[in-house]
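Input/output pair, single chain:
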Amino acid sequence: MNRYICRIVELSSLIGIPLYATVTPYLAFRSQGFNGARELVGWQTTINRYDVDNWYGSFSVTPEYSQSFRSKRIAEWLFCDALTDMPSKNKQDTYPVVKIQGTKAVNRDPKALMAENFYLPTDFSSVLSFNPTVKNALVDFNFYLGLDPWLEGLFFRIHSPLCHTKWNLNFNEQVLNRGTQNYDPGYFDDSFAPDFRDPLVHGLTRDHMLNNFTEYVCAGKALTNTDDICYEGLHYARMSTHPLSKTALAEITAQLGWNFCTGPGYHCGLALRAAAPTGTRPDGRWLFEPIVGNGHHWELGGSLTTHWCSWQNCAETSAINIYVDINITHLFSTQQCRTFDLWCNPLSRYMLAIKFTPAVKDLIIVNDNPPPATFLPTAQFAQEYTPVANISTVPVDVSATVQGEFIFKCAFSHQNYQLDLGYNFWGRTCLDIYRACTCHGKTDFVDGTWGIKGDSFVYGFQTVDEIQQLADVLQPGIPLSATQSDATIFNGCNNWPMGNFINNQLTPWSSNPGIDNPKVARSTTRPLATKAIDLNNPGAPTYGWNNVYTSPNPVLLTFNDLDINRARTRSASHKAFAHFNYIWKENLCLMPYLGIGAEVEFGQRDDCCYTPCKFSKTPTKSCSPSLASCCIKDNQCFGQADCKTISLSQWGIWIKGGLSFN
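Output:
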């Protein structure tokens, strides 16, 4: 019952907001080495030649600079639900930001990320801005060799770009309120000060906490360790305040083909195409991590190459040629380390998880149903905190059925001058992601060890007698067994300040009313309590302690809780390109050529940014409708509509020079 109440409370505060829109933890963009437009331009008259009896070939070098645009789209893919519009300085426009606010922040925005997940005070407030960009500087090496002495029309070609890529979130944090509040007793640690009778009694103090979100997400800092309690920092999916870069060969792509139909003014050929991975692969350490190449996949497929001379003048000094090339490959399975969110819980990788042990010590459950009884919970808090990303970064095997591109080009030539104008379509089917064993030392997910903290209290304090105003309260606290499986990155389920309902009775926030299946907690000898709050004046100093609740069967995470299905993406883009070239034809044995070109690529995306969480975790579970109704594409279970279209929009300029030989 409590779980549904939590959902209703969240929904009522987020009217109009698609709660479970998907975000994309890893953006698999087009490889810098899969660019048929850049390969084809400039040298087309020196390759696929007709009626040649000897060896011939061509070698080209193409330096290119490219840069992404439509940064807001990238930010939407990465943060989606968490983005909110903020007025610019001139107040005539808005820009998307992410807010960080504590549970007790004044006029808290329901779309703000809960600051306590990041070891920040409950009254902390800041604003994050992002302007993600991708920049590539590369040199593409191409070589073509005609093998006509072996078989007329036989050819071999190979190319590989050496690429330096720079990915920049342009991440900035503006702290609005550093926060001064201490944590409540039992919220994070097992002690309190100064005295249980003091209305200002508190747990962990402000000086133990982080100063801002940047320390958590960039530097990987955590709370200062106290006694035997372990607070882990963020190791994966971190955000960098400066550009991240990689340099490598994208991949080495080779073709062995045969022009089976050739003649003066036309050719048609087929080729076997293969690519060896020489680029980088994701390791999950950074959000928006730079990737060179296709993610380290082997590729195998085929190519079609054709051209036809549609017009030529009588003097044969001017002509118009039409070129069509098609490249299709399969991306074989490769192992990657990726960070995943929890099912139906976008950005949950930045939430806090707490560790559990089956060895329960000095904690029992009071059954509130007749007949009264006590029993042990199935597991107990093991006094260790970690961001979910540290456990949801797992090795996976990734593949794609088909990647392909279509290139159409119209080439105008007059004497030694050439002008190419063309169109390129590129697409990749949905990535298939499967569980793997290990990845660069990162082990697989361990089931049944971790649970979600949310805003739950994890320690209860013993009272000498039954809880009452004058009862003595002892420390250190007893670890509880409380989890909040329905908590989100935006809110916990205890519902500050009013609390939540247990058995149709409103229960204060600090008593853990929003945890999974709440039951009264006791030590083996005494009742357990947490500090009371004044519901008429929340946040005001108040004396008193209340019963605390815990979960008899804490909900512990398994591999099936990772939202791998919604991390799958497909791609499609449309590109226009142009190239102007000059070729020195005076010497038929060695013909140099030089040209300049440009391209602009428009990445395609789904009609709507949001794909609500509508589908069940496994095919055996029943489908249930989402709280949001935007952009629901079909009614199938197991999320066949969850594959998002992610494609980079970018422009580029290049210089292509080379030398052909007979």
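The chain has one domain: 2-450+557-661. The radius of gyration is 31 Å.
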